[in-house]
Structure formats: structure tokens, C-alpha cells
Amino acid sequence: MGTKKIVIVGGGAGGLALASKLGRKLGLSAKADVLLIDRSPIHIWKPKLHEVAVGVIDQSIEGLLYRDHGLKNGYRYLRGSLEAVDPDAKTIQLSPLYNDSNELLMGQRTVEYDYLVLALGGVSNSFKTPGAESQCIFLDSLASAEKFHTQLLDGLMLLNETQQRLSIGIVGAGATGVELAAELHHVIESVREFGYQNIAKHHLDIHLVEAAPKILPQLPDRVSGRAQAVLDKIGVHLHLGVQVKEVTKEGFLTQDGTLIPADIKVWAAGVKGPDVFADLTKLPITARNQVEVDACMRVKGHSDIYALGDCAQLILGSGKPVPPRAQAASQMADTLYKNILNRLKGRDEAAFEYRDYGSLVSLSRFSAVGNLMGNLRQGDFFVEGHLARFMYLSLYHRHLASLFGWFSALVYRFAQKLLRWQRPKLKLH
Ligand SMILES: Cc1cc2nc3c(=O)[nH]c(=O)nc-3n(C[C@H](O)[C@H](O)[C@H](O)COP(=O)(O)OP(=O)(O)OC[C@H]3O[C@@H](n4cnc5c(N)ncnc54)[C@H](O)[C@@H]3O)c2cc1C
């Protein structure tokens, strides 16, 4: 039997962790051919996208180049965007590749696999709200974070020249919306240090619109209550229990006919699977564009195809689906890593067990809040302030450890800190 070809599509929180571990274990010693495909050449951990969007982190420092990383960690990297899967031929098809001037670089490509892992993540769900797709930025990819950054810089430039107000509206007060609102306030507080002398805090209006009666609706009342107190204090306008029925150039039109004005509009409500999944007619795709997997993360009816993270629908024993979270994608990558090794040795695969460690929400430098679960105590408990911030950052460190191993992750983080120390604290270009 020849060397098995393991193809992973999507190098995000789950896919890149899996590619790194399989690469180090099998790829470096040529026991398997591990190929990672991603549409982007750079990996940014998705929970940091809002920080890229506002310029608090610089992707040239925090971004990881798949090609370099793959060379050292035993996987090959191919830039491409999945457009079709043929489970009978055991091939996938990648879309044609264009350059920035929209010139064709490469036509469609076909890639063969022995085992395929779909790890394409999710996208924001506009629930078909009129105008949302055309007017809003969906903060779900590096490209969208960069688009927001450009609009923010244009807005700040105008604000500095004219002192007319700038209004930013965010639909969805889940973790993404709340973290973005807090981060934006931090930016407006800091821009004077960076030459925007004419801008004052009160020039920026941040509107956070949420259909549920509280922010962070998935989290315990104490966590959302505390986060709400922080947002109130920094002057974010909260519109709770408000449903957006249409998005126009001027802003968000609500069910009761009110217009919430917004120059920059962000849609951060709801998660669904990637749009391309709607075209994968040979696979079991749900109404929310996720692919159905069994307890061992095998796509139902296709034992050589696996899926993990936000693009997969795995129903737990409790009847609930695994939530779309970085910690879930990372745990799934760990289980799938063991399962693929077992499978190559002809052993049984284990069912995925989700461990909810709680949720932490960063409120920029103002703090973090969250609830932790686990062995420390029965049930969950509330954390905030420095401890919560420390635990929030440790999630990222754990992600880096899965990409590099603990020691190299520490060195990598130290190198990043040195580079950041040299550069301005805000990327305003
Ligand atoms: C702003 C923000 C803040 C968040 N904060 C938290 C948090 O604090 N805690 C938490 O647990 N979760 C958080 N999340 C959710 C978390 O980021 C996701 O649940 C997690 O990243 C999912 O991991 P994944 O591996 O499934 O996909 P992703 O990490 O989304 O990675 C998907 C990868 O697939 C690639 N891809 C997509 N389509 C294609 C295609 N057609 N072809 C090739 N490649 C493709 C993408 O480029 C990307 O690299 C946050 C999300 C956002 C947007």
C-alpha cells in the first residue's frame, strides 16, 4: 500500500492545528503526504479578526505564512479555494485563481485524496435580510477585516478633517460584536497620539443592535450584565430586543421603522456553513450549509471524508450541536488527529467528546469577562478583570502550541512581542 494522501481544506483554528500535528507526526518522516489547502496564504486566528479590523494587531506580525510553516512542520501548502467534492472519484476541485487585477493565474485544479478533511469554518448569517449582503461587512475572513480597516481609516481621515460625526453600526451583540465595539472605543481614545489631533471621543458613535433582550445572549446573565455595564460606561449605544428588517446605505432600518444611522455597517449575527457547501450535492448538507458528521467526525455516508469546526454539524448525545467556537474546533482537531493515526494503524476511531471550558469575552484593554467551567468547581463560575484577560490570552497561546509545540510557541510569541514593541501600537495605514 502506497503513502496515504491526507488533504485538509481550510487552515483555521481546527484545520491548521490538525495539519501541523499530522505533518510533524507523519509528514516529516514521509509516512503520509499531508496537504493543506487554504484560499489565503496567511493564517490569522479568527478570534483576533476584530483586532486586525481596528488595527490593534498587524497581520504582518501576527499572521503566519502557511508555506513557511508547512516546510518546518511536515505538511505541503497549496493556495486554492474549494469549489467541488467528488467522493466517488476521491477528488476535489479548486476554483480558478485570479490576481489582484482580476487576471487568470491558474485554471481549475483537481486534487486527489485518500482521506479528506473539510475545515472551511463558517460565515456570518444574514438570514436573508434585505440589503445586508450589499451594505455590510461580515467580519468572518481576513479579507473582510482588511475591508473594515480601510473603511475605518477613511472614516478617521474624514473625521479629522471635518469633525463631522462618524457612526459605526454593528448587528449582533455576540462575542464578535461586543469585542469589536470595545476595541473601537479604545481606538478612538488613542488616535490623537497618532496624529489625528482633531478627533475627540464624542465624534464616534458606536451602535450595537441585538434582537435578544440582552447582549451576549448565549452567556449567563452575570457575564452579559457585567459586559453591558462596561459598554454603557464607555458610551456604546445599545439597541436591545431590536430586529433589523433592512439595511440601507444610511443605516439599519428596524421592525418598528426606526433608522439607526451608520456610515460603516458590520453584520456579526449568526453563523452558517460556507456558501460553497450549498453546491456539494453529493454530501449531506444542512439548511444552514453545514455538513452532517457522525460522532467520529466522518461525513455521514462517506467514511473517507471528515469535517470539523464551524462547517460541521455534529449532534452530541445531549441532542445539542457542538457550538461554533475556536475551543470546539481545536478539540475536534485533537480527536481527529488521534482517529486518523488509529485508522492508519487499522484501529477503531473514537467518538468526539466536547468539553465546554466556558466562554471569555475580551473588552479590549478595559478587561475581559466570562464564565469558566470544568473541574475546578461544580458548574460554572464568573471571572473578570486581569484573570479573565489572562485566561482569554491563554486560549491563543494554546492555539499557538498546537501549531508549533509549546517551546517553539513561546519563542514565536516572544519574537512577536519584540516586533510589536518596535512598531506603533495601532496600525493606522
Ligand atoms: C471576530 C471573532 C471573534 C471570535 N472570538 C471567539 C472567542 O473568543 N472564542 C471562541 O471560542 N471562538 C471565537 N470565535 C469563533 C471562532 O473563531 C470559530 O469558531 C473558529 O475559528 C472555527 O474554526 P474552524 O477551524 O472551523 O474555521 P476557521 O478558523 O474559520 O478557519 C477556516 C479556514 O478555511 C479557509 N477557507 C474558507 N473557505 C475556503 C474555501 N472555499 N477553500 C479553501 N479554504 C477556505 C479560511 O481561509 C480559513 O483559514 C470568534 C469568531 C470571530 C469572527
From TrEMBL:
Swiss-Prot/TrEMBL keywords: FAD, Flavoprotein, Oxidoreductase
Domain FAD/NAD(P)-binding: 4-333
Cofactor(s) listed: FAD
SUPFAM superfamilies: FAD/NAD(P)-binding domain
Pfam families, per database record: Pyr_redox_2 (PF07992)
InterPro entries assigned to the protein according to its UniProt record, in alphabetical order: FAD/NAD-bd_sf, FAD/NAD-binding_dom, NADH-Q_oxidoreductase
Source domain of life: Bacteria
Family membership: Belongs to the NADH dehydrogenase family.
Name the record gives this protein: NAD(P)/FAD-dependent oxidoreductase
